[in-house]
Design brief:
With 298 residues, the chain is mostly beta strands. 4% of the residues lie in helices and 53% in strands. The strands form 3 sheets. A 14-stranded antiparallel sheet has the order 13-14-15-16-17-18-19-20-21-22-23-24-25-26, with no helix packed on it. It is globular and about 60 Å long. The two termini are 33 Å apart. This is Cell-wall associated Rhs protein with YD-repeats and PAAR motif. It holds the Pfam family TEN_YD-shell.
């Protein structure tokens, strides 16, 4: 596309996504199955809003009129997903408005460390405090305690234990659920065990390649054994394989932000394509199928 920017992505002749860009080569439209995702930017080039709509792409140029306030078309009834972002004078994200998650506000210290995350709901709000070395402090009801040896021992209803190398070896949630973690001589996680009400709920074992990338996982969940293999392209996971099925991951160009997942299952003629919808920094928040239905959300 133009000076080398991606315009279309297809896999073995199967169209995955079409992209349109503005005069600055920033992506403004992206087809995702029966949905079209649209993106807008502020004067600093930061993502200001995004939405996924069921309206056909040819009608979007009629809707996105510069004389109309963005919230009018971002929050349109045809959009199953929409988000707006606001930033403070220091460039930090200060507010998000999300159709599925509501409003979230962020507060920061002068050095940019996150101080609070407010959703307007008491159970979802979070506060953070740090020591002079930027280590997070323990939160204990009404006061913040210093973290000994830079190891967080308690957070909300969770308790943590560590080995001599600082690896997390036990996590207790409430009084009925806990996890144990085992590491090899290179401090790589090789085994996890989850207990619930004194019963073993699941056990997982992990293997790595010479570059410390996880390449295999074997899980025992309530008597059922599951095997998975992971293939990599640099530091991006390219493919996930298990008996009878596999998943191929596609990413935005030059980024770790996932764009789509293509599932192949033994005995099925056609692959299934799922699309990721990320936030302003590329974190996946939703996944939709080819029909535009949300099948997963964070």
């Amino acid at each position: 596309y133009g000076s080398g920017h991606l315009h279309q992505l297809n896999l073995d002749g199967q169209l995955i996504s079409d992209m349109e860009r503005d005069d600055l080569h920033r992506e403004i439209f992206r087809t995702q199955g029966k949905l079209t995702s649209c993106f807008g930017y502020d004067s600093m080039g930061r993502k200001a809003w995004q939405y996924a709509t069921t309206l056909p792409a040819e009608k979007l140029s009629q809707i996105q009129n510069p004389l109309i306030k963005p919230e009018r078309y971002v929050e349109h009834a045809y959009n199953p997903i929409h988000r707006r972002y606001e930033y403070d004078p220091a460039g930090e994200l200060s507010r998000t408005l999300d159709k599925l998650r509501g409003e979230t506000q962020y507060e920061y210290e002068a050095n940019g460390q996150l101080l609070a995350r407010n959703t307007g709901r008491v159970v979802d709000g979070e506060e953070f405090r740090y020591d002079a070395a930027a280590n997070r402090l323990n939160f204990n009801t009404s006061r913040f305690d210093h973290v000994k040896d830079n190891r967080l021992k308690q957070w909300a209803n969770q308790e943590y234990k560590y080995d001599a190398w600082g690896n997390l070896i036990e996590k207790v949630v409430g009084i009925v659920r806990w996890q144990t973690f085992t590491y090899d001589c290179e401090n790589r996680l090789v085994k996890t065990e989850t207990m619930a009400d004194t019963q073993v709920e699941s056990t997982s074992n992990y293997q790595y390649d010479s570059l410390d990338r996880r390449v295999a996982k074997q899980s025992e969940i309530k008597g059922h054994t599951d095997h998975k293999r992971f293939l990599w392209q640099g530091l991006r996971m390219l493919r996930e394989e298990s008996p009878g099925q596999s998943s191929l991951y596609l990413y935005e160009p030059g980024s770790y932000a996932p764009l789509a997942r293509v599932d192949e299952k033994e005995g099925e003629v056609e692959n299934k394509v799922y699309y990721f919808h990320t936030d302003q920094i590329g974190t996946p928040l939703e996944m939709t199928d080819a029909e535009g239905q949300i099948v997963w959300q964070a």
